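From the shared-data thread, chain only:
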Amino acid sequence: MPVLRGDAPPEAAALTERDCKLPESGWGELILAGSRPEVGAGWTDDGKSYEVRGLKRRARKTTRPVRPIPPALVQLLRRHLDEYGAAPDGRLFRAVRGGRVRSTEYTEAWQDARREALPHTDFNSLLAEVPYTARHAGISLWIKTGVEPVEVARRAGHSIAVLWKSYAKLLRGQQHRANQLIDDALNSSPDKAE
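Structure, as tokens:
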């Protein structure tokens, strides 16, 4: 699961076909180059309901790689492009008439997916209430499966300090696994065999 930043819908709204490296098989890569946050027409100079911006907390022209993206997502994006193509400006995701996918539309799609995927009792809970929770779940999964914290932070677009602040409980919860890794290393050292 790739992890877009907390403002993932604006980053996804700006994602273009040229930003995607989608091989026939295996892992791929996304190069995020900007975002299109929904801000309301009254707050923009041109009267549009969104702005074209750089990435959050980065220099305007800076890009951010999201790599690697797993084979399942590579195939989903390839099928999406095969079926729908890209907008004339290269964007992957667009509304029926070619415009920006509005927050109300992706929120409805998210709720439909929750309704389909979750038991009724969980649908009525806060579980996966908003798309951002998928980002948190992905990062948590990486930590719990033993991906090194430095690599988790890199993939998430975090600093190590932010990772520790946001996921300290999960990171500290790996003591048993760490002990086992150290035991394994000590028990297999060349000095031990002599």
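Residues 160 and 184 are 27 Å apart (CA to CA).
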